[in-house]
Specification:
The two termini are 19 Å apart. The protein has a two-stranded antiparallel sheet with strand order 1-2. The relative contact order is 0.24. The protein is mainly alpha-helical. It is built from five helices and two strands. The protein is globular and about 30 Å long.
Length: 74
């Protein structure tokens, strides 16, 4: 297991996108542009492993915010 694998199952939520400085309108447009369901994300979040597949800078910001939150939660 690589150091990043341990976080792949974590769920990124709107809390994490906000912590990353991503606004709701911009996030909605980003999800739409990637063919993702923003409403489903709001309701259920997305696993880090799914966001990593996108290889996208905005996705990485949300991933990083979620990992920081996990580290703070201990």
């Amino acid at each position: 297991m690589t150091p990043t694998d341990e976080y792949d199952g974590l769920i990124v939520t709107v809390t994490d996108t906000c912590a990353a400085g991503l606004c709701a309108t911009g996030s909605w447009q980003w999800f739409k542009g990637h063919g993702l369901d923003f409403k489903a994300f709001i309701d259920h979040g997305l696993p880090i492993r799914e966001l990593r597949k996108l290889d996208d800078a905005m996705a990485q910001l949300a991933i990083d915010a979620r990992i920081r939150r996990a580290q703070l939660e201990g």
